[in-house]
Amino acid sequence: MAVSSIKKIDLIGLERDRMDILSFLQNRGQLEIISSPAAGSAQPGAGKAAGVEPMELEDAISFLGAYSRPGGSFSKMLKQRVMVSAAQLRQEAAAFDVRAFLDELNKFRLQYQEMQRRKERFNQERIALMPWRFLETRLDDLRNPSSLCGVFLGTVDLREKENLLRDISGTGAPAHLETVNTVDGTLYAAVVYLAKDFERVEALLKGRKFNFVVLGAGEETVRERLLEVNIESLILDDKMQDIRGQFCRLSEQALRLMLVHDYLLCLRERISVSGTLEKQAYTFSLCAWGRRKDIPGLKEELYRKFPESAVFLSDPFPGENIPSALENGPLLQPFEVVTDLYGKPVYGGIDPSGLLAPFFLVSFGFCIADAGYGLLILAVAAFLFSRHPPPSEKIFLRLMVWMGIFTVIAGIITGGFFGDLIGRLPEAFAWAKRLQRKLAIIDPVKDSMLFLGATLIFGFLQVACGVAVKFCRDLKRDSFAAFALDLPSLFVQFSMLGLCLVLTGTGPAWLAGYALYSFIAAGALIVFYNWHSNKDISLKIFWSGFGLYSIVTGNFLSDTLSFSRIFALGLTGSLLGAAINTMLFPSGPVNGIGGIIGASAAVGVLFAAHILNMAISLLGAYVHTSRLQYLEFFGKFFEAGGRPFRAFRQEGKYTYITTAADQTVRPVTTK
Fold first, then answer.
1. Furthest-apart CA pair in the chain: how many Å?
2. How many CA atoms lie within 13 A of 313 on its CB side?
3. Domains contained in the chain, number
């Protein structure tokens, strides 16, 4: 439950071991290299993948994804990263001839693209020829009929046909208009004319907005050409289907392609880091950040593998850009998810993950307050665990398990199980009703004021805890602020609580005197601190009054009242669950086939409605619980702005790379 202690590491090794040491460090994933990486192009150690760029592999993987078998290993890997070992990546890079694979794939892709272009040309030609299919003249004769006459093919608005015929007959030029086809109000026509009248007929047709059409050349008629186009198109379809079959065959090896891609990514990162290291004739050196707890094991294995290397440790200097890494045990590690969403604490600050854990879980649980919903959350977490997620996802799933457990506990305390479902069960479940009444302590609906008071007291305690943490932090930094501001702030809060208890009749009368004297003494210390801390007289006057005012209205009133959202969400969820049961739970006896079908449908809709209500409650609970931590709790002591610890490690786009000795890695097979 702390921010990890960071050490600066200076490592010196032999130049001949440089890439091997970098591979070792990347495999361990425990150091952050201080040097800024520079791009590298050479790929020593890439095996048969030498000269292949990751972007080229990404393009191939993306392309083959469209041809993978549904439910196949490639499809599953695209949806979820699998765990592989670093050794397996190296083996695949050495064994898989990825260049030959890409050459074969690119050859088929080029052929397929050319066929697609031909297919498109056939489609365009078919569209152009279809309206002219009734022409019985050969295509070559249409283009060059004879030296004495010519033919214009074209389209015109059908309404212009009579006008066009009249114009042709009025010119005195021997010409003939033949209707070939009519489609959607468009006339497809052939105009035969004498060669000497070419210009006159052309001008006449243009005047009537005649759209000239030129068909392709050929010995056949339009109908015969259409038949040829259809036959060639079918043959082309068969060839394209064969190539798609080749793509499907190649997609079976795309898993290996992904492994090589991720290996090259890691190799490129090593080369980039290698280019920034300080090198001498026979040695090199690097500087890195490392967590204190990781260093002994790292040094031991480094010296065992590279005995000629040397490691020197030092403490960071003030003002250095030190990374921040959280260090918690297995029970508290899931709550780092909540902290990381807000930001890393500064190095040397307080890690709030362990401090927020009980408050976060209680708040979340009572925002939902339904044991049935909690069991569903646990069931979803168990299902996701069964899919063997990577460690980074397991951390959130463990948080999900905690949230489910506390939701069940809150549901038991409030008597909530899918709303008021237990109370509506028939007498055969009387034992469940008795158990519910025995375990339930508070009903959010019937005891709403008691529930509200409990949430406010809970909020008061968390806010006070935040001030207490600030007091402990300032004891090490500024003891004057700790005793003159933080501790009096706590006394003001508890004094105000005592006065409220007396005024509402829930506390003894003698408590008022102690609370009042405590408030006056603590308030005087706060005024003194603000007067002493500010130099300007106007600031002394302002902060002396406003400092005390902000503690009363901020810490005690505003922050505490914010926790009433727990009451609001818990009450709303209970009422919505009860309303769903009222509308959909079968109330009368079930008779006959129709009754059974109706009751089954009602139960199905009832379950779906509860799933929807749970999803809404889950979202509201997580958002509002996180908000309470970030504003009302973190605001008292948390110092954000820490830079995340970015380990130099094996990271893949398609795989999760692990080096754990006991990790079972699925072998990659080539079909």
1. 127
2. 13
3. 2
